[in-house]
């Protein structure tokens, strides 16, 4: 049974899915019918942060030009870049093997940004039905889901969720915070 989270809600993965060792994180959205003069290209990016809430290194920024984490086990893998978001189901996704995430990574931040948003005059107010979900890779069962309900009329970047370690276990925080300035605003925040 899927647990639906609300903005700001935090949950222990050990309590809701004690056998979870690796998760598929799927993200999806729909673009409202508007004519902005260009296609919408939403991109998932992942920031692997240390205890100081900063990137462990530049290689710990996972995005369409760097699909895997730098650790030898490649514990975090982005599964490509969907440039249109068309179709049903997840538009982009990643795999996180929680057993293999190096100890210097305290937090995994999953974000979505709009590619060339300013140039294309696009924002998250033109996007609907955005969600993030966590699926147990072994059982294929959806464990958690967070549906973004806010109307971000000027924001071009959204922090969807954070996986973080606390007291030796992984937890998930449904963040749902929007930012102006696109991907650069997030890079500035975590560098």
From TrEMBL:
<protein>
    <submittedName>
        <fullName>Chemical-damaging agent resistance protein C</fullName>
    </submittedName>
</protein>
<feature type="domain" description="TerD">
    <location>
        <begin position="1"/>
        <end position="190"/>
    </location>
</feature>
<dbReference type="InterPro" id="IPR003325">
    <property type="entry name" value="TerD"/>
</dbReference>
<comment type="similarity">
    <text>Belongs to the CAPAB/TerDEXZ family.</text>
</comment>
<dbReference type="Pfam" id="PF02342">
    <property type="entry name" value="TerD"/>
</dbReference>
<dbReference type="InterPro" id="IPR051324">
    <property type="entry name" value="Stress/Tellurium_Resist"/>
</dbReference>
